[in-house]
Write a structure and sequence with these properties.
The chain is mainly alpha-helical and 451 residues long. 67% of the residues lie in helices and 3% in strands. It folds into 3 domains: 2-311, no CATH class; 312-391, no CATH class; 411-449, no CATH class.
Length: 451
């Protein structure tokens, strides 16, 4: 009960503690809001203009939040948080079926208290719905006997994943088709019909209403183009996802050293193939953003849990991850500035960080002396949850002040966006309900574009 209460607090208490962040969340929220207001649940529209960069699933679920009359932050975020929590419940039940209850509890605890899963469960963008649907399909496909009913469920989950973020889900699922003969059961009439029933109606309706522009933007520009073109301005080096994945797995990433490598187990082959293929593919894609690798986290946390359970002394293996939680006070100083101005704008005191880790390490070693071995892992996960809950209450208001447009909108209701930060431009547009121009572009005296 304590773990459930802590989990609900982690995911639901702070949804309105900060305004909408980044450039994507205000845009996605505005589209969902427009669908709820106009009743047009087919054509995504951003401040009146058709917008086809992403499929429709996120807009549908956030639109429900607006239909329920929730606030400007809770309406888009609560549906995503509920999807995250629902997946964690499914994750526990499915891992229990594939392994056992103890492993299910350990893997779910690691995933629920990893920085990446927590962070993106508080932001209304497409990656939690994609990850939940894709990982559901992955976990359902695993096991000795893929029944017809489960094959249909896999196809339905893949269809939902495509509605979340288009063909990326099918690409990431490719290893499942290559590993063994399960693909034969997935391409039978019932699973294929289920997949097409989920995917095709919206695509056909949107194409019928909007024509070839829909195909060009969604598939050519933002699927193929994202993989090959530098025009989208998210170009990163091949190794970009190495540090990103460690940050998303914080504080549990040291447990990667324990991950089992016995490929005789078909379940482990599936997990490693999914993680390995996905990591290499996403690293090879020209445009990269941190949340693109989020679909790999559920499979990775199962591997971490398996390695931790098989460790000779798991209570010692968990020491370093718990000590790393001591970095959260320093991270609290870095995150708001990094979100507003980029990571280079945030100054990190590495000497102070070393002392904090050392203090955390000492505190954990002392706790191990006074607690029994059987409680070491649950206590570690609960400790992480409590630390992240503190982090949310401490940092979200600072993010609101530093890296969102909400305080400026509430204070002044400006007609244009001061400064060069894109998050201000899109955030003010969201709260204003219309396109807000940059003050450096708009001449306030003549209300005209400066030539």
């Amino acid at each position: 009960m304590v773990a459930i209460a802590l989990g609900l607090a982690l995911y639901l208490l702070n949804l309105s503690a900060m305004g909408l962040v980044s450039v994507d969340e205000p845009r996605y929220a505005a589209i969902g809001q427009a669908m709820a207001r106009t009743g047009d649940w087919v054509t995504p529209r951003l401040w009146g203009a058709p917008w086809f960069e992403k499929p429709v699933l996120l807009y549908w679920i956030t639109g429900v939040g607006y239909k329920l009359g929730l606030g400007p932050e809770v309406a888009p975020r609560l549906p995503v948080a509920l999807v995250s929590l629902a997946f964690l419940v499914f994750f526990w039940f499915r891992v229990r079926t594939l392994w056992d209850q103890n492993l299910a509890s350990l893997a779910t605890g690691l995933l629920a208290t990893s920085a990446g899963w927590l962070a993106y469960s508080h932001i209304a963008i497409t990656d939690i719905p994609l990850t939940a649907a894709f990982s559901t399909a992955l976990l359902l496909s695993m096991g000795d006997n893929l029944t017809r009913r489960r094959a249909i469920a896999v196809a339905a989950a893949l269809g939902v994943a495509v509605l979340a973020k288009s063909i990326l889900a099918l690409v990431l699922f490719a290893p499942i088709f290559l590993l063994d003969r399960r693909w034969r059961k997935l391409i039978q009439l019932a699973p294929v019909a289920t997949f097409l029933t989920v995917v095709l109606p919206w695509h056909i309706l949107c194409w019928h209403r909007s024509g070839d522009e829909f195909i060009r933007v969604l598939f050519l520009e933002h699927q193929l183009g994202r993989a090959t073109s530098t025009a989208l301005q998210h170009v990163q080096p091949f190794w970009f996802y190495i540090p990103v994945l460690l940050m998303l797995l914080f504080p549990w990433f040291p447990l990667l050293a324990l991950a089992p490598r016995d490929l005789r187990d078909s379940r482990l082959r599936t997990l490693w193939a999914t993680v390995g293929f996905g990591f290499v593919f996403l690293s090879a894609v020209v445009n990269k953003l941190p949340h693109y690798v989020l679909p790999l986290l559920p499979a990775l946390t199962i591997l971490l849990a398996l390695g931790l359970r098989k460790a000779a002394k798991p209570e010692r293996a968990i020491i370093l991850p718990v000590a790393l939680l001591g970095l959260l006070p320093l991270t609290a100083q870095v995150v708001p500035l990094a979100l507003a101005h980029g990571l280079r704008a945030a100054r990190i005191s590495w000497g102070e960080a070393a002392w904090v880790i050392a203090l955390g390490l000492g505190a954990w070693l002392i706790s191990q002396r006074i607690s029994s071995r059987q409680f070491a892992l649950p206590v570690a996960i609960l400790t992480a949850g409590i630390c992240f809950l503190w982090f949310e209450f401490r940092v979200f208001p600072e993010i609101d002040h530093t890296a969102t447009a909400r305080p400026l909108w509430l204070a002044r209701h400006p007609d244009c966006s001061p400064g060069k930060q894109r998050f201000l431009l899109y955030g003010l547009s969201y709260y204003a309900g219309r396109t807000v121009l940059d003050c450096q572009v708009l001449d306030p005296q003549h209300d005209s574009i400066v030539r």
